UniProtKB/TrEMBL annotation:
Protein family membership: Belongs to the bacterial solute-binding protein 1 family.
Keyword Transport included in the entry's annotation: yes
Keyword match Signal: yes
Pfam family, one: SBP_bac_1
Protein name per the record: Alpha-glucoside transport system substrate-binding protein
Keywords, ordered alphabetically: Signal, Transport
Signal sequence extent: 1-22
InterPro entries named in the record: Bact_solute-bd_prot1, SBP
Record-annotated membrane-spanning stretches: none
Amino acid sequence: MRVRHTLPAAVAVAGLAMTATACGGGSSDSGSSAAKGGQSLKGHTVTVAGVWTGEEQASFKKVLQGFTDATGAKTDFVSTGDNVSTVIGTKIAGGDAPDVVMVPQVGVVQQFASSGWLQPLSSAVDAEVTQNYAPVWKNYGTVKGQLYALYFKASDKSTVWYSPTAFANAGVTPPTTYAQMMTDAKTISDSGLAAFSVGGQDGWPLTDWFENIYLSQAGPGNYDKLAQHQIKWTDPTVVKALTTLGDFFKQDDLIAGGRKGALATDFPTSVEQVFGDSPKAGMTYEGDFVSGNVQSLHKKVGTDAKFFPFPAVDGGQPPVVGGGDAAVVLNKGKDKAAGMALVKYLASPQAAAIWAKAGGFISPNKAVPLTDYTDPTLRETAKSIVDAGNGVRFDMSDQAPAAFGGTAGTGEWKILQDFLRDPSNPAKTAQTLESAAAKAYQG
């Protein structure tokens, strides 16, 4: 599942705790001409599966049309919903595997590779990544020394979006500490508008809340260990972060509709409740991709909607939690060569420029000109994510096995939804998380 305007200095990476850090070239250079124009793939059809819906899907289809214009190949996009691994596994078993999958979790890339489902990316794609991406993004797509995934879309999940009108009415300004943010939240609530809209119906925003608190409060070293289950979820640092998050969840008056309302609010609605025509809250926390949802509401980012970096917790460093969506080629697809050509195209700055101009997108590709971002806010964010280089900590739940960190209705998503429903016992929630994590990592 999922960058910011003014990023704080990125946390230095002591080790990104990826499965592997080396990369290897693929077995074929299929697709080396994909971005060169012509009709070299006329008559081919590439089936692409991904989680995107709404504005994101519409924007990605513009990118796919760019591929068609460049190569002559047609494309067919299939939405998987959030349960990517389950849906793709079913399609492979049924002999209906797509050619390319846009995978939103590092853990799922690793799972697919370990299951033998993936085609190594070609040496042409490898060369593009080596030249135009920070090493961290190549590491994210590498499993046991082999490059399998191309990170096309990046995100910064350390941004808090707010209504300038709501802040002005309450007499508050963007905070620089978590404690001040909670104080301001109370002030906004006292002014007659709930402080936050929380997309609790979708479990993944809740994992992002936890991860930002944990990274800042417990530090990057513990973050890396927990991401790889090298420390247990019952560790005191986890209980402390859950306690901090639970103290917020307990305050029903700070949340639009209270906890019950949050559990019935999906991510797009959480944005609409702040920036729609009938606002119910002054802030919503999520990644830079909120800007696309704001624009779909016909509101202007930078005027009607602004954000501040997720603030430092308990004297720690401001967190920099990143995410991204990676393209992989399935070896059971019907047209692997055309699929590889699409991934080669996605590695080009031309492909990224299409979505950059549409909004709601940033690329980790440093060859994408900043002028391609028509939104000045996203232009600054894109520069920050590229400048951060190896300093981004990847979304923790996206690094976990899908059964724990990436599946609706189970694992971390479901457990944190239950915690939102009843935040009274952080230690018990930590134990439940540990039980689910231990099972998933053993599997």
